[in-house]
């Protein structure tokens, strides 16, 4: 897959590359945050149509997420999100999105740095550029898509434009999946207080009961296959349900840094992810899952080995999930011939803890929220400076304060055993 990183100028104009040899394109557009099953359906249809028409499949990926870019602008007098902007609500970094898009067989991807001038471009102008400059023949969209200034380019408007001009066709994908659910408008992450994966509060309710629940919780309707619902699920510890919507376990990524070394002293050494963690961090709690090791991260080894701060250790590898990104002020485009795909070195079942280490925080005075994973293996692991992915399988229990380190170690042993069993069950189910 060929990638072009494109930066709009101060007027929102983009130097769109033309497709080679006069080829036509089948194109889709979105942020594709999470690459959930709805996104996959749209991209698979794009590739399928491109094969049928002997055309080139093209994905236009918006980064950062439009919602995050607009929120940043609203809080900073209309300014664009700067280079290296960290979006904690993004489900996954752009590099991971590109890896998954490539795995579906997309030929070419344009990554557009989403700016406020670009957001002000009308859908008519944007689609005109796709036809005239890129060579778009067919546009593939999901069933609730919209684009352009003020989101005026809904499916009805785009279809009318297609029929009126006759220069491109619109193909709408039924990407609704299991249908709709309901999400409270003002929900906040809430750690489940009981062990085990939380149940869907709407499960088993009839229409009348669902309406009552929705009114009581000021809920709105949302797709099960949607990034907003997946964030809601993760914010309530329902990582298994989130994985079902994604079509794979939800994951976060980062570089392993030195923590308090507390795990070593009690026999459970953990891999601590340095800030900023890439991907949406679920609510506090202990989870079963997997720790995936990609080996030493670029430029991170020396800093971590030297005992650098988390921010310093992360600095050298902060672009690992954002390869090719350029400053919005530079107005320079960048071309890559392929995704720099990472190959896992190892993958272990893991017990994953998210929280503030309540057992020791009072004594240490450290209350930072951390993500740490204990790999369930007999091997002695030295992962400082390694680029890792933490994948979430299920919710085990809430965070709690233990009376002693021995009591904590006993519970960690139980967590590790539960994680091993969950991993074995997942393997058996996949067979």
Detailed description of the structure:
The protein is of the alpha/beta class and 431 residues long. The chain folds into two domains: 2-173, Rossmann fold, CATH 3.40.50; 252-430, Elongation Factor Tu (Ef-tu), domain 3 (Beta Barrel), CATH 2.40.30. It is 32% helix and 24% strand. It contains 14 helices and 17 strands. It has helices at 37-52, 66-75, 94-103, 116-119, 123-134, 155-165, 207-216, 227-234, 239-246, 262-265, 301-305, 310-315, 358-364, 405-430, and strands spanning 2-6, 25-30, 56-63, 108-113, 136-142, 146-147, 153-154, 169-173, 180-184, 219-223, 251-257, 271-273, 285-296, 334-336, 346-355, 370-375, 386-397. Strands 8-5-2-3-4-1-14 form a seven-stranded mixed β-sheet, sandwiched between helices. Strand 6 (146-147) and strand 7 form a beta hairpin. Helix 8 packs antiparallel against helix 9 (239-246). The longest helix is centred in the last third of the chain and has 26 residues, at 405-430. It starts with a strand and ends with a helix. Residues 305-330 and 359-367 have low confidence and may be disordered.
Principal-axes geometry comes out as globular
Tell me the strand order in the biggest sheet.
8-5-2-3-4-1-14
CATH superfamily of the largest domain: Riboflavin kinase-like
The name CATH uses for the topology of the largest domain is Elongation Factor Tu (Ef-tu), domain 3
Overall number of strands:
17
**Major beta-sheet overview:** 7 strands, mixed
Instruction: Give the number of helices.
Output: 14
Under CATH at level 1, the class of the largest domain stands as: Mainly Beta
Structural class: alpha/beta
Oligomer: single chain
Low-confidence stretches: 305-330, 359-367
The number of domains is 2
> Share of helix among residues?
25-40%
Report the β-strand fraction as a percent range: 15-25%
| Overall pLDDT metric | 88
Q: Report the end-to-end length measured between terminal Cα atoms.
A: 30 Å
CATH architectural category of the largest domain? Beta Barrel
Radius of gyration based on Cα positions: 23 Å
Region (Disordered): 183-205
InterPro entries: FAD_synthase, Riboflavin_kinase, Riboflavin_kinase_bac/euk, Riboflavin_kinase_dom_sf, Rossmann-like_a/b/a_fold
Protein name: Bifunctional riboflavin kinase/FMN adenylyltransferase
Pfam families: FAD_syn, Flavokinase
């Amino acid at each position: 897959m060929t990638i072009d990183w494109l930066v709009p100028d101060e007027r929102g104009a983009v130097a769109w590359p033309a497709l080679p040899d006069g080829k036509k394109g089948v194109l889709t557009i979105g942020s594709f945050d999470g690459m959930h099953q709805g996104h996959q359906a749209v991209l698979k249809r794009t590739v399928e149509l491109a094969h049928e028409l002997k055309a080139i499949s093209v994905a236009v990926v918006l980064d950062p997420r439009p919602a995050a870019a607009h929120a940043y602008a609203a809080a900073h007098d209309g300014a664009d999100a700067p280079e290296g902007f960290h979006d904690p609500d993004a489900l996954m970094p752009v590099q991971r999105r590109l890896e998954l898009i490539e795995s579906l067989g997309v030929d070419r991807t344009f990554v557009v740095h989403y700016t406020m001038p670009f957001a002000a471009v009308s859908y008519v102008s944007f689609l005109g550029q796709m036809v005239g400059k890129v060579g778009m023949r067919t546009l593939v969209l999901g069933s609730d898509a919209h684009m352009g200034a003020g989101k005026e380019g809904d499916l009805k408007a785009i279809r009318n434009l297609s029929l009126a001009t006759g220069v491109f066709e619109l193909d709408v994908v039924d990407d609704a999946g299991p249908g709709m659910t309901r999400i409270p408008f003002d929900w906040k992450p809430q750690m489940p207080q009981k062990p085990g994966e939380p149940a869907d509060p709407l499960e088993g309710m009839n229409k009348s009961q669902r309406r009552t629940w929705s009114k009581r919780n000021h809920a709105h309707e949302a797709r099960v296959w949607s990034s907003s619902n997946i964030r809601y699920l993760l914010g309530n510890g329902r990582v298994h349900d989130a994985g079902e919507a994604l079509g794979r376990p939800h994951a976060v990524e980062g570089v392993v840094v030195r923590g308090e070394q507390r795990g070593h002293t009690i026999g459970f050494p953990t891999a601590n992810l340095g800030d900023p963690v890439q991907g949406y961090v679920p609510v506090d709690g202990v989870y079963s899952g997997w720790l995936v090791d990609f080996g030493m991260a670029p430029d991170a080894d020396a800093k971590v080995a030297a005992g650098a701060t988390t921010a310093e250790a992360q600095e050298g590898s902060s672009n690992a999930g954002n390869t090719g990104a350029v400053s919005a002020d530079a107005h320079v485009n960048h071309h890559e011939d392929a995704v720099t795909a990472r190959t896992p070195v190892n993958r272990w079942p893991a017990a994953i803890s998210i929280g503030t280490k309540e057992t020791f925080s009072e004594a240490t005075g450290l209350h930072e929220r951390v993500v740490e994973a204990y790999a369930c293996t007999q091997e002695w692991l030295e992962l400082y400076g390694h680029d890792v992915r933490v994948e979430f399988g299920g919710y085990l229990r809430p965070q709690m304060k233990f009376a002693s380190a021995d009591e904590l170690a006993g519970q960690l042993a139980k967590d590790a055993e539960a994680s091993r069993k969950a991993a074995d069950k997942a393997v058996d189910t996949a067979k």
